[in-house]
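Quick one: co-fold with erythose-4-phosphate.
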Amino acid sequence: MEFFIDTAIVDEIKEINAWGVLSGVTTNPSLIVASGRDFREVIGEIAELVPGGAISAEVTALDAEGMIKEGKDVAAWHKQVVVKLPLTPAGLQACKALTAEGIRTNVTLCFSVSQALLAARAGATYISPFVGRVDDLSWDGIGLIRDIKEAYVLGDVQTKVLAASIRHPMHAVHAALAGADVATIPYKVFKQMISHPLTDKGIDGFMADWAKRAGASPATPPSEAGSNPQAEAAKK
Ligand code: E4P
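Sure, here it is.
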């Protein structure tokens, strides 16, 4: 499963991208507003930060003609842009038209398998089922991912399942186990995913032992202490 980051905040993207795990970035109108940045400017900067990554930029028009026009404009900003469209009749129409022009699309606000099947027929590159918002309604967000993936595999559909509205690390784990092709993860959840108290404790223990080796100053970090003095002495 690939990882996208779900944010328009450049510092968050820089930090997680440095881990070497990102294949793209998703934004939506709420995330662009939260970034406090100009839409076009921030999308261009994000695309440069994640070379080759898929960068989702969402249209705000609600009619098909407006979505197609806006989609073409946004796609022209950068070759990595993927046009995000809502899962409405107008969104499907725009998806079909933009796909015919070779523009990649991410059909968003998906809450059912039937919607996902329609988006696939309209040529969507990605379908974004919202796991967390489904769970909020006491329904099964991960089950939705699993069912969409199963229907797509049975129908030999090429549209990629992009698990969105991920709220915690186990959403990411279960999305992978349910067959999601991609999960778009908020910055905070990436930080939760990498964190483990036994990793921290293990490093502390190794460093404490390393500081005890012959000739080492306890204050000297291993990276600055050079090679092991005992090994060096043995070579002589
Ligand atoms: C991503 O494409 C979606 O816009 C996002 O994951 C929605 O997440 P939320 O339900 O936490 O707002």
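If it helps, The mean pLDDT is 94.
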